[in-house]
UniProtKB/TrEMBL annotation:
Superkingdom of this protein's organism: Eukaryota
Annotated protein name in UniProt: BolA-like protein DDB_G0274169 isoform X2
Gene: LOC113392209
Any one Gene Ontology cellular component term annotated for this protein: mitochondrion
Record family assignment: Belongs to the BolA/IbaG family.
Length: 108
């Protein structure tokens, strides 16, 4: 479920600007968790950028986390990252697996 909330837009803008993305999906997965309706707390990002070329997966994730540090410190509870180079994305099936359903949390 994608939304166009303030945090969703901030994530999209920051990643596009910092990474000059070739492909970007910002998916708000908050609805899958025990949070208020229309929350923006759980996200999956699919980021394709030339800036990932030559970087190990952990360094790609650290780069994305650093770009989004303000969001992660101010309300974003979870961030799932798919980070690929354009070559990796082009040779893939371009299918991003769904995240599993919430397995607990507050009030469960």
């Amino acid at each position: 479920m994608s939304t166009t909330g303030i945090i969703t837009n901030a994530i999209r803008t920051k990643l596009q600007s910092a990474l000059q993305t070739k492909h970007l999906e910002v998916i708000n997965e908050s609805h899958m968790h025990n949070v208020p309706k229309n929350a923006e707390t759980h996200f999956k990002v699919v980021v394709v950028s030339d800036k990932f070329d030559g970087l190990a997966l952990i360094k790609r994730h650290r780069l994305v986390n650093d770009i989004l540090k303000d969001e992660l410190q101010n309300g974003v509870h979870a961030l799932s990252i798919v980070a690929k180079t354009p070559e990796q994305w082009d040779s893939s099936d371009k299918v991003v697996e769904s995240s599993p359903n919430c397995r607990g949390g507050f009030g469960k």
